[in-house]
Each structure stands twice: as C-alpha cells, then as structure tokens.
Write a structure and sequence with these properties.
Layout (H helix, E strand, L loop, with lengths): L1 H21 L5 H8 L4 H32 L4 H21 L1 H12 L1 H6 L3 H10 L2 H13 L3 H23 L1 H43 L1
C-alpha cells in the first residue's frame, strides 16, 4: 500500500508541476489574443495542433532527456540547479505581472504577422505551452523516476494534461467572461509564488546532494 501511495504522490506532484509551470488558465488571454481574428475552424485547428506539438515535445523530453544530459556530461544536480534558476526567473515574471504583459505586448505588435503565419507550433506549441521550465522539469522527473511504469504513466499524464489544455482553450471565451482579467492576473501571481518555492526547493536539494558527495 505504501508503494501505491508513494507512486500516486509522485504522479500527482508531476502533474501539479506541469500545471503550475504552463499555467493554461493564465495563457487563455494569450490564446484569445493570437487567434481572435481567426475563424472558429482555424481556432480549433490551431488549438489541436499546438497541444499535440507540446505533448510530443514533453514526451520526447521524458524518454530521452536523461540520455541528452549524459551525452553532454551534465550531472542531474547541475541541471536541477539550472532548472531551479530558470523556474525562479519565470516565477518572478509571473508574480510581477511582467510575463503576461510582455507576451500580450509582443502579440499586439505582431498581430498581423501572427495572423498570417501558422502559430500552432511556434510560439503556441513551443515555447508558450512546452516551455523551457516544463521541459527541464520533465527531464528532471524522468531521471529520478526512470522505471518503465513511471515513464508510461508520465506519458499518460502529459497526454491528459494536453487534453485539459485543449479543453480550456476551447472554453477560453467563457473563462474570460467568468474570471475577467483581474481574476486571471491573481491566479497567475499565485502560480508564480508556488513556482518560486519549487525552484528554490530544486536548488536546495541539489546543493545538499553535492555537499554530501564532497564530504
């Protein structure tokens, strides 16, 4: 029973980290802004392709991310510290409201370009959904839980999360009406605070392991 409970907590933590890092609710205004001038069919197609792209990137990171680290001779502790610093950087922008404003400002400046180009893969699929923080966290998780059962469940969780993102983007107009910009901004800042704590935990845990090896 302890084994099952432990695994459940591991999977729940992985899903929660993905949700906090990607923050699909906070991305709803960005999705609306990028696709607002598109037809409903185009918006549905962009939503589907972008989430398939993000899921594919994260699943590839899950399975071969640790191999890439080994190939370049990067220790998991160093990668966790780098990932922690990156997460803290993203979290700081979220707490200050800079991440959302920068993305919306960029969208406004390039509205014509976005509407002429296929935005499903870039920037929606990557880096907005499958961003550096989500990719690094997926690689870190896979190196610590690399049993094939964990990898399979991890892949299923990524697919389920992508489905949830797809559903949220489909319901984007309704969320905007219910939460409003104020509600979404508050939620984004709460997610940022949780992310900052997670990044600090990554760094502290890695430093402890490094000092243990030295001593």
């Amino acid at each position: 029973m302890d084994y099952v409970d432990s695994d459940f907590k591991i999977y729940l933590n992985f899903f929660a980290v993905l949700f906090a890092l990607i923050n699909p609710i906070g991305m709803i205004p960005i999705f609306i802004g990028m696709t607002g001038l598109r037809s409903q069919n185009d918006r549905n197609r962009i939503n589907l392709i972008s989430n398939i792209t993000a899921a594919s990137i994260l699943i590839v990171s899950l399975f071969i991310g640790s191999f890439i680290l080994s190939f370049f001779g990067i220790s998991i502790e160093s990668f966790r510290i780098a990932g922690g610093l990156l997460i803290i950087s993203v979290a700081t922008s979220m707490i200050n409201g800079q991440l959302m404003s920068k993305l919306l400002l960029k969208n406004n400046k390039n509205k014509v370009a976005y509407n002429k180009e296929n935005i499903s893969i870039i920037p929606l699929g990557m880096p907005l959904i499958a961003g550096p923080g989500a990719i690094s966290s997926t690689i870190i998780w896979s190196t610590h839980h690399n049993h094939y059962n964990n990898m399979i469940v991890g892949s299923i969780l990524i697919l389920f999360f992508s489905f949830m993102c797809w559903l949220l983007f489909q319901l984007a107009p309704y969320f905007i009406r219910i939460l409003g910009n104020t509600g979404i901004n508050i939620l984004t800042r709460i997610m940022g605070l949780l992310l900052m704590s997670l990044g600090i935990e990554f760094i502290i845990a890695s430093i402890k392991i490094i000092f243990t090896k030295i001593l």
